[in-house]
Design brief:
The protein is mostly helical and 157 residues long. It contains seven helices and no strands. The chain has helices spanning 10-20, 27-67, 77-80, 85-95, 108-124, 134-138, 142-156. Keywords: Actin-binding, Repeat.
């Protein structure tokens, strides 16, 4: 504060002191900081992608281990659950109850109806689904599909 002139008020003196303490920017340091941040962000993204791939593989194996009882199998967790048929079969195997028959057809509305039947069954079983709708599964939302399978694992395992 000794560097501040007497006619400056307290706020101006604080601003001047803060400006005097800032490092002098040079192109090298700005580039170094930017590249290190970029590396850090790309590393975090790579680790998140790796975690998602491991979860997808693990959950696919878990689903297939239960669907094997009814001679069914999925190859891609996100695509094979979209129509709601395999999701319904999985819930039937896990619960031992019969669910309403899936609607025939391959149009989006049929898929939405089938997934909605499965989600409605989960709600009847008092399984709490946070922000998961039939459109999320039909659209192939990776995060919510993994979350749905994790919730099913926690409830029925």
């Amino acid at each position: 504060m000794a560097n501040a002139s007497p006619d400056l008020d307290n706020a101006d003196a604080q601003r001047q002191l803060n400006n005097n303490n800032r490092p002098i920017s040079s192109g090298f340091w700005e580039t170094e900081c930017t590249s290190s941040k970029l590396f850090e962000c790309s590393r975090i993204k790579a680790l998140a992608d790796e975690r998602d791939a491991v979860q997808k593989k693990t959950f696919t194996k878990w689903v297939n281990s239960h669907l094997a009882r009814v001679s069914c199998r999925i190859s891609d967790l996100y695509n094979d659950l979209r129509d709601g048929y395999m999701l319904t079969r999985l819930l039937e195997v896990l619960s031992g109850e019969l669910l309403p028959r899936p609607t025939r057809g391959r149009m989006r509305i049929h898929c939405l109806e089938n997934v909605d039947k499965a989600l409605q069954f989960l709600k009847e079983q008092r399984v709490h689904l946070e922000n998961v709708g039939s459109h999320d599964i039909v659209d192939g939302n990776h995060r919510l599909t993994l979350g749905l399978i994790w919730t099913i694992i926690l409830r029925f395992q």
